[in-house]
Each structure stands twice: as C-alpha cells, then as structure tokens.
Amino acid sequence: MIVTFLGTAAANAFPEAFCKCKNCEQARMLGGFSLRKRSAVLVNDDLLIDLNPDIMAASQIHGCSLTNVCYCLQTHPHADHLDLSHLLSRSPDYGTIGTPILNFYASAETLQRASETFERDLAGYSLLSPDAKAWLNLKIHEIEPLQPFSFGNYRVIAFPANHAPKMGAMLYSVESDGCSIFYATDTATLFEETWQAFHQFQMKFDLVILDHTYGPSQPGSDHLSAHQVIEHVKRMRNEELLKPNARAFATHIAHEGNPAHPELVEFASQNGYEVAYDGLVLEI
C-alpha cells in the first residue's frame, strides 16, 4: 500500500493564520514541512480517509490526483474533517468529467448530521435520498464499529473513537495485499474495547498513525498528547500489535503545544515514533 499524507494539522491548521504564538511564527519562518493543512490521507490512489476542507489544495500542492478516488472512509462530521461541498464539486452538474461513483462509508450518526447539513446549507435535498445517488454520483454505506467490511482490495474495521460523543466518530484499520494500517484521529485514549478488539481480530500493523493534537508539555484530554502517543506506541509494541519493522507516525498536530516540524521530529525520534508532514508518501 502507498499512503500519502494530504494534511497533518489539527482543526485550525499550522500555522494558524490569525495567530502570533511562538510555534506559528516559527512555522511561518521555516516553511516547508512545518506548514500543515488539516488532516487527511490517501491510500493508494483510490481510498480517501476524510473528505476534508483542504484536499483540493493538497491535490494541487503535492501533485496528487484524486481522480481515481472511489472510496471514502469518514471519521466523523466535524467541519475540519468533512467538507460536503466536495460532493457537489465532483458531480456532473459542476462540469466534472470522468469521476467514478464515490462509495462513502460512515457511522449512522455521522451520516445523519452530514445529511442535515447538506440539505440545509448546500442543496435542499437529503444526502440520504435517491436523488443524491443520481445527482452526486454517490453511494452511501452505513457502517458499525467492530463489524469488518470489504470493498475493492481492502478489508476494513471501524473502531469507536474516544471523541465527540453521539457523533459516531470512528478510527479505521485498513488491510490490503498483506499490509495493514491503523488510522486514529481524532481520539483521546483508546477505549479498552479497542485494545481487546485488536487481539480478537489478530491485528498486526505495518503502520500506525496517531492523533497528536497536544504537545510534549501538555496533558491529553479530548485528543491525545505527545506523551500519550508514546504510551500508546509502547503498549502496541509490548502487546505485539506491530510487525517487527512497523512504523508509528504522529498526525493531527495542533499549534498550541507543538513546536515546528524539526523540533518535534527531534522529540519524537527520542521517544519511539515519527512525525508525518504534508505530502509525505510511505510505501508499505
């Protein structure tokens, strides 16, 4: 599998455009890998995780076409992860040619909120209506946590995220051709049922991507902190959930407590994980 990071920031990007904090000013000065769009990843060239507001810019900046995307795993309905206007912009009515049907996978709660937002703010019809399928070149799939499902060459399991109660937030494992990744943003400390499910499904990951909203000097709360990432990676290794050459990466990096990329990379390298950056391509 090939994994491309389209964005690696938390909700307000990094640097935050309106902020003069030390971390934002440092990121502006350094540029390059310290400039982060909001978090999303592309798996191979056909599977997107999160239809977020920055994927158009990411496609342009990183020379990463999304023309073959026919699957999307949606983590949850927060605006930094779901921009429903993309469903219109990729439709035939907006002059888009050659787009495949988009199979959109999300929890019942996420789909309900998305449908309400879409009907109220964008199109005047429900995202769950037959009209949406025809007009948007879209097929909706409601998924449940801990119930494996498959499409194309992928086998997927959704895990309940410790985030946004009553919004059905999900984390995802994705397997294909003998490789397995775990994408875990947004979430606080993983639920024990998730750890148990890893063993129940005999998971062995090649790549783990963890929420890193809060930095080295911050406690975790509704998202993971740097030290919680360290603890999670250690536990995964101790419980043999990672393959021998597996890699663990931080994403969803907020400006409040995280330094710019070089300093954060140095901290991570001393603590058993790595830091993703926008445009990073990993082949596993």
Which sequence of SSEs, written as H and E, runs from N to C? EHEEHEHEHHEEEEEHEHEHEE
How many DSSP-defined strands?
14
CATH homologous superfamily heading: Ribonuclease Z/Hydroxyacylglutathione hydrolase-like
SS strand fraction? 25-35%
State the CATH class. Alpha Beta
Please tally the helical runs, counting DSSP H or I stretches of 4 or more residues.
Answer: 8
Structural class: alpha/beta
N→C terminal distance: 5 Å
What's the number of structural domains? 1
Instruction: Point out poorly predicted stretches.
Output: none
Shape: globular
Would you tell me which CATH topology applies?
Answer: Metallo-beta-lactamase, Chain A
Task: Please estimate the helix content.
Answer: 25-40%
Structure description:
The chain is α/β, with parallel strands linked by helices. It has a single domain, classed as Metallo-beta-lactamase, Chain A (4-Layer Sandwich), CATH 3.60.15.10. It is 26% helix and 26% strand. The protein contains eight helices and 14 strands. The strands form two sheets. The chain has a seven-stranded mixed sheet. The chain has a seven-stranded mixed sheet with strand order 7-8-9-10-11-12-13. Strand 9 and strand 10 form a beta hairpin. The chain is globular, with a radius of gyration of 18 Å.
Task: Describe the structure in brief.
This protein is α/β, with parallel strands linked by helices. Helices cover 26% and strands 26% of the residues.
Sum up the structure in keywords:
single chain, 284 residues, alpha/beta, Metallo-beta-lactamase, Chain A, seven-stranded mixed beta sheet, 8 helices, 26% helix, globular
